[in-house]
From TrEMBL:
It comes from Actinomadura alba. It catalyses: Endohydrolysis of (1->4)-beta-D-xylosidic linkages in xylans. Its EC number is 3.2.1.8. Gene3D superfamilies: Glycosidases (3.20.20.80). Residues 1-25 form the signal peptide. Residues 28-344 form the GH10 domain. It is an enzyme of class 3 (hydrolase). Pfam families: Glyco_hydro_10 (PF00331). This is Beta-xylanase. The keyword Transmembrane helix does not apply. Coiled coil: none annotated.
Length: 348
């Protein structure tokens, strides 16, 4: 009995040693920037990156470099970007993001290997047999993961595979290859880079409900079969309209209990325009609660925003009359949401 207790204590100590935040010399101080927050909390703070401003805008690069410890290509690693014609790979955009990250000591999250969107026409309009299609998916995953072996630390292997009711989304992959395409994708990715952390990623997964229940069942099943799945990404596209998902942390904990990492992979908090101080304050509170949820969960590895500036955000193009969803405004001024995140570092 005694030795079991000792083993438990030692195991707990080992866990603490690998997951706890590094001790800070100034525990009571607010970190200077998000990088400081990341170092204090042990959670990577990332942003999605768009290649055009990365190439063209020095102030965009400056903030990205100063604030973030991780980057995700917003579009440049998607299938239509990297393989616009069968077997002809175009890595310029993806390489630009990875090179920037390496120069600035940032981690890279790979997004995404298998999705139903942003597929090239040669693939969606092609006439392939099921077996050919399976080979095409395997080659695509293998080529992309190998190219960035050791450079991309985590991959969103499958993205948005669920419907809201928890059934699997009908897609080219499901229809033609059957549900086994998910396990195959993880196995192929793992073979191409055995050290990369491999994730299931989705939106509207933040609260407990049919969709997150289904994700939980999926990863449970994959793990039981020995499929190399390591984490679940909660995109976190939130809106002031719908309220903050109050059970976010409890939900994440269900995944942690399976031995998985979690991450908030694409957070933004949109609002109906015009911007008011009240809305900015409410938005700050959503961001704060989301990071708090992550910090309260063991092995929440990353908190990534889907673009850091309102100057370049997908929201206005997709939700009419909405926007201002990011941490920095269009002129790259820090918004209340930014300060609400930093303040969480004070107590660490
Ligand atoms: O931000 C991306 C936008 O520029 C693209 O036009 C869009 C196309 O589907 O994809 C956006 O990113 C999505 C991400 O890849 C997956 N989760 C939802 C994101 C917002 O739509």
């Amino acid at each position: 009995m005694k030795s079991r207790v000792l083993v438990t204590v030692l195991a707990a100590l080992a866990l603490t040693a690998t997951t706890a935040a590094p001790a800070s010399a100034h525990p009571g101080r607010t970190p200077e920037d998000l990088r400081g927050l990341a170092h204090k909390t042990g959670v990577r703070i990332g942003s999605a990156v768009a290649v055009d401003p990365l190439t063209a805008e020095a102030d965009y690069r400056r903030v990205l470099r100063r604030e973030f410890t991780s980057v995700t290509a917003e579009n440049a690693m998607k299938w239509e970007s990297v393989e616009p014609e069968r077997g002809r790979y175009t890595w310029e955009g993806a390489d630009a993001v990875v090179d920037f990250a390496r120069h600035n000591r940032q981690a890279v999250r790979g997004h995404t290997l298998v999705w139903h969107n942003q597929l090239p026409a040669w693939l969606t309009e092609g006439t392939f047999t099921d077996e050919e299609l399976r080979g095409i998916l395997r080659d695509h995953i293998t080529t992309q993961v190998r190219r960035y072996r050791g450079k991309v630390g985590s991959w969103d292997v499958v993205n948005e595979v669920f419907n809201e009711d928890g059934t699997l989304r009908s897609s080219l992959w499901l229809t033609r290859l059957g549900p086994g395409y998910i396990a195959d994708a993880f196995r192929w990715a793992h073979k191409a880079d055995p050290r990369a952390k491999l994730y299931v990623n989705d939106y509207n997964l933040e609260w407990i409900g049919p969709k997150s229940d289904a994700a939980l069942e999926l990863v449970k099943g994959l793990k039981a079969e020995g499929v190399p799945v390591h984490g679940v990404g909660f995109q976190g596209h939130l809106s002031l309209e719908y309220g903050f998902p109050g059970d976010f942390a409890d939900n994440m904990r269900r995944f942690t209990a399976l031995g998985l990492e979690t991450a908030i992979t694409e957070i933004d908090v949109r609002m109906h325009l015009p911007v008011t101080e009240e809305k900015l304050a409410a938005q700050a509170d959503y961001y704060r609660q989301a990071l708090s949820a992550c910090l309260s969960v063991r092995r929440c590895a990353e908190f990534t925003v889907w673009g850091f500036t309102d100057r370049h955000s997908w929201i206005p193009g997709w939700f009419e009359g909405q926007g201002a969803a990011c941490l920095f405004d269009e002129a790259l001024n820090r918004k209340p949401a930014y300060h609400s995140l930093l303040a969480l570092g004070r107590r660490r």
